Amino acid sequence: MELRQVEHFLAVAEELNFSRAATRLNLGQSAVSASVRALERDLNAALFARTSRAVRLTEAGRVFLPAARRLLAAARDARNDVSTVSGMLTGVVRVGLTQTLQGIDVPGALTDVRRRHPGLTLQLRQGYPNTLLSDVARGRLDLAVVPVTKAPPEGVRLNLLYSEDLVVVTPPGHRLADRATVDLTELAGEVWVEFLKGTTLRDATDAAARAARLTRSIVADVGQLPLLVDLVKAGAGIAIVPRSVAEQTGLLPITIRQSLPRRILMLAYPHSTQSTTAAAVVIEALMSARRRTSIAAVG
């Protein structure tokens, strides 16, 4: 059994598709298939049930899956431990990032890690919070920076990075543009620009509207924060965003009088990551960025 075969098995097990697994591994599909067949011969068991239309794990495959994840994690830990002894930290840390990172200098923290540890490779992937949390729990990511509104999946640990309130932003010259505060009931009849359904920010604004019995006329559901900001500035409508987004994009924040849930940005990682030197370095850098942000806010 070779580690690369275990890695190929894990990719197929998570994708349940040899073609997608090959793309993920940057290999040809025939190479991945041959590698998995060799692993099955070594284990003397079929790990996948294959048909012309589907791939699924056999009972043996389901039993082997958690062991494969542990094996690859142990191999990464071993490489990191040896590199620490040699004085040169190497390895790969897979980091998931949500779209809205205003309020904490995540790019700066990760750049600092690369500068201090040039042998360390950071693989960054952007995605929706629930997907990123699931990938941390399943071992696809070593850590993720995500907004969290509910309990994380089993085995995932959370550390607070940043917390802030949500505010209303309006186009320049809007009737409310010069207001310091606003009641949600005053927004009846307004046209709104919103985040996509299923995002944590959209869930928060939907909940606030329901609590205030506010019916909104939504003209745009967007998945990219810069587009939402541009639409508000262009006069397409008003929006509710984290305060840091308003302050960093030149929109004037209007405080909402009602008590809304705060936006909470968390660092998510598996409990086992505590023993991984490379991941621990990245975690400490992000927690330090949180502390610098907190000091600046107080100052």
TrEMBL record:
<dbReference type="GO" id="GO:0003700">
    <property type="term" value="F:DNA-binding transcription factor activity"/>
</dbReference>
<dbReference type="InterPro" id="IPR005119">
    <property type="entry name" value="LysR_subst-bd"/>
</dbReference>
<dbReference type="Pfam" id="PF03466">
    <property type="entry name" value="LysR_substrate"/>
</dbReference>
<dbReference type="InterPro" id="IPR000847">
    <property type="entry name" value="LysR_HTH_N"/>
</dbReference>
<keyword id="KW-0238">DNA-binding</keyword>
<dbReference type="InterPro" id="IPR036388">
    <property type="entry name" value="WH-like_DNA-bd_sf"/>
</dbReference>
<keyword id="KW-0805">Transcription regulation</keyword>
<dbReference type="GO" id="GO:0003677">
    <property type="term" value="F:DNA binding"/>
</dbReference>
<keyword id="KW-0804">Transcription</keyword>
<protein>
    <submittedName>
        <fullName>DNA-binding transcriptional regulator, LysR family</fullName>
    </submittedName>
</protein>
<feature type="domain" description="HTH lysR-type">
    <location>
        <begin position="1"/>
        <end position="58"/>
    </location>
</feature>
<dbReference type="GO" id="GO:0032993">
    <property type="term" value="C:protein-DNA complex"/>
</dbReference>
<comment type="similarity">
    <text>Belongs to the LysR transcriptional regulatory family.</text>
</comment>
<dbReference type="InterPro" id="IPR036390">
    <property type="entry name" value="WH_DNA-bd_sf"/>
</dbReference>
<dbReference type="Pfam" id="PF00126">
    <property type="entry name" value="HTH_1"/>
</dbReference>
